[in-house]
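From the pipeline queue, job 12 of 40. The input is one protein chain; the requested action is below.

Action: predict structure.
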Amino acid sequence: MYTETMRRRSALYLLISHFVLNVYAQDIPLPIQIAASTTHYGPDGPWQAVSVSLGKPLQQLDLYPGSTFETIILAQSVCKGVKSICGTGGLFDPSASSTIDDSSIAYSGHSFGDTVDWTIGAMLNRGNAIYVMDQLTLGSRAVTVPNISIRMMESVNTTYPDGATYPLQVGQLALGASIANQSFSMANGPSINASLTPNYLQRHGYIPTSSYGMHIGSAALNLPLSLWLGGYDMSRVLGPVSAQPYSANITNNNFLIDLLDIGVGVEYGGSPFSYQARQGLLAEKNSSITSLSVAMNSAAPYMYLPNSTCAALTRDLPVVYSTKYGLYLWNVTDPQYAKVITAPTYLSFVFRTAGQNLTIKVPFQLLNLTLDSPMVDSPTPYFPCTTPQDSPFYSLGRAFLQAAFIGVDWDQGLGQWFLAQAPGPNTASNPLQTPITGIKLESSNTDWSDTWKPLWTALPAASANTTSSTDSNAPATPTHLSTGAYAGIGVGIASLVLALLVAAVYFYGRRRKDRSSRLLRDTALQSESKYPEANTLHTSPPLQEAPVHPVELSTREYMSSELGGTSRWERPPQEMPASG
């Protein structure tokens, strides 16, 4: 029998359990979200950054997230005498910070001359830097990390293929490394230990693990950047998640993975190309490539791939190669430009993983980036494929990472890094905060296509066209037929069909005339024998055959057009199935 005493006892048990669970939950640290910047940067973006504060009193800086070991900041001296966008993300004044240590880390000469690159050689960055330590304040809880490792740029610029140099707008926020601290060995004293942000936060109980999850999103398409220390936003992870050991290279801590292929696809509807899908572009016209080891590289803007691969990717795009920038510029006046950019089209990147291969889809809308001042006089859309400028290492920069989630569990050199498909702009604004606590990440069950549908305009099923790159200076550009050639073929085919029709009418008319003559002759003979008078009453004039002369096609009547138009008489060209 359920007595009043039992009821009170059950209520007491529930109260105690609720109290214990709350205390336990409070003892488990939660991931920390890092705020995205309200300003976007270029001049080859727009790119999103994160906002943090350095020193005491606080100096706010916007930084691109994702490097390892040292955080890269721009000192006020970087922009001395420079009139342009230099340092628009914030410049640091070391003399104004009471917490800076700019003397303990004293390598020979204290400065490092030209060795200032942090992009794995993807970009040609040159300048002068010194190592310092200072406190970093960041995140929704405004936590402070003392004595972080910093490379302070006293001067720096980026050089493009034509030799022109441009200043930098923002630095780079380091997100840890495979060790607890960055140690600097001094010749005349003990080693100096500088803090690495997620490692410090985990050891002091601010976050559950030394880890992070990041999706840089798209500034142009209003897809906010997502960065969490100690965890990740599960809504930014779709489908299977690959997990692989990170490179323990003390210099770069590269996140390396084998790229097996790149293709072009259409999610649904018609295709702006002469095919619905195409594979084999990674190694097209380059038999030396079987796979390519690439690094995830959020410190650099483009996709850094072999010349032959960039040429294959752009072969059917309305672009022009620019030797000045080493990039492909979109031809916005070509009708194909709007079709390619707004249709459900994408590049597919296939990576080797421990289990089933992983495919990341990057819509062409994300590959429609913009060059701006001071690189160009007016905004110029471009396709972000180029070759590394200062090393033989291939990498996928922010252009690719707009469409991919990347995470890492440092775990003192025993952890892994993660790669997965990220969603499009039609994504829930409320994050699914999830700690990184094991060797496997859970993903959302959201369908990738649904996150892009509001931004796509599907083409009719019979809307195939053939487009091509249009610059003879493009490196290793494959040979292909131009649009004019296809138009000429179209006119030739039309002329051939018309000639066959005329011949068919001619021979059919002649055969019919012969049959009619024979029929009249036979009838007349029969009439003469049965009805002699009929021959004079029902005679007909002989059939006259109109002469056929060759006629030149009128340019007004038969306008040249690309194959695969909307006429119901035409059948769009089909790609032959690949062998094997």
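Job complete. Helices lie at 4-27, 197-203, 307-314, 335-342, 398-401, 483-530, 534-537.
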